[in-house]
Structure of Pyrroline-5-carboxylate reductase:
Amino acid sequence: MTDSSQASRITFIGAGNMASAIFGGMLDSGYPAAAITATSRSQERLDAIAAQYPVNTTRDNLAAVAEADVVVLAVKPQMMRELCLSLREAVQARRPLIMSVAAGLEAATLEQWLGGELPVIRCMPNTPSLVGAGASGLYANARVDAAQRSLAGELLGAVGLVEWVEEEAQIDAVTAVAGSGPAYCFLFMESLEAAGIALGLAPESARRLALQTVYGAAKMARESEFEPAELRRRVTSPNGTTERAIQSFQDAELARIVAEAAEAAAERARELSRELSQN
Ligand SMILES: NC(=O)C1=CN([C@@H]2O[C@H](COP(=O)(O)OP(=O)(O)OC[C@H]3O[C@@H](n4cnc5c(N)ncnc54)[C@H](OP(=O)(O)O)[C@@H]3O)[C@@H](O)[C@H]2O)C=CC1
Ligand SMILES: O=C(O)[C@@H]1CCC=N1
């Protein structure tokens, strides 16, 4: 997708799950490995990365930033302040595009920790990025130009769907729906599997059926010309088995339960934002 000599140089600080999912996807879609650098504090982690991906690795964050056009910050939110302060001089000398995948950390806070006046893109990816089926929300501050926006879209687009939001607060909603969302789906799979076992299926069989059913329904909903509500109606025969199950979900107010769970996640994102900006 990108000519090696012209490719933007991208440094991932924190070569963990999320960073490796993103650069793994970029490599799969043809981004030149020579233009990607990943850093970590432990050599062990870097050795594991180097064994799996042909990217450059180093424990030296400052050297990696000094050569970067884009710096992707991918450490835990609670580690971000200390990291940013340590990178400040190198970042100010180079002024790369800053991308952060940390939950609950506002662009202005990051920009301030890094010394100010920087283009910052806040991303909220999710773990299905690991299998190329991620869903990410992106927000750009006013200093980000069109080429940087397009590059960020290309980066996250290499591991799945990308949705831009215009208001930074909407990233909390993306977190509640997509960032945390895979866990809700896994919980549903666990429950469906347990229900299958309770009804007499062998455990392995119940798991396979539950997983394939959720996968098949998601694939069908993605590919169909009909919206999910219509697809649901098509499964639900009048006075049949599905109707009884759906009635049971509706009696238990599934929609309200999901709305409350998502609101709890969004509120935690806002709370994290307040906690982290006070540091
Ligand atoms: N997991 C998820 O579902 C999602 C996570 N996120 C966000 O992604 C970010 C990373 O999460 P995740 O990948 O799961 O976490 P990981 O713990 O897998 O990755 C973080 C990595 O950062 C490295 N690290 C920590 N401090 C430094 C430092 N100072 N310099 C260089 N490397 C450092 C750690 O390795 P070492 O100790 O060797 O340095 C570790 O490998 C978080 O901010 C999280 O909010 C966003 C969306 C979804
Ligand atoms: O649970 C969390 O805080 C992170 C952010 C979204 C998914 N995992």
About this structure: Residues 10-170 form a domain with the Rossmann fold fold (CATH 3.40.50.720). Residues 13-18, 39-42, 45, 61, 74-77, 79, 83, 101-103, 124-127, 179 surround NDP (ligand 1) (CB under 6 Å). The longest strand covers residues 134-140. DSSP finds twelve helices and eight strands in the chain.
